[in-house]
Amino acid sequence: MPDEARMYVNLGKPFARQQTVNHSVKEYARKGTGKAKKVSTNTIEGVFSVFKRGMIGTYQHCGEWHLQRYLVEFDWRYNHRAALEILDKTRFDHALQAIEGKRLTYRTVS
Q1: Which of 6, 39, 65, 102 could form a disulfide with 19 if both were Cys (CB 3.0 to 4.6 A apart)?
Q2: Which DSSP symbol is given to 66?
Q3: pTM of the prediction?
């Protein structure tokens, strides 16, 4: 659910249920229609804030070549955050399951 920025108009055409909020008139959330019970940009803004904090605090630089890998990591972090009541042990178990049978070397990343 994007805001009213023009760059989202064509981007959202394939999504029949796309609805927007209008920040310019101080609309930040409202009841949705159809399957969307609530229309808001809070989710993507939350994801972006996790990414931004990580890039500023932990990594400090991300080359374009590796951007997708950073985004995947932060997506995983957001979906396994404590606010969703996911315990450290569960998070650890999910991480171990995800790496089972995989071997990552720098040569395969490059």
Answers
A1: 39
A2: G
A3: 0.56
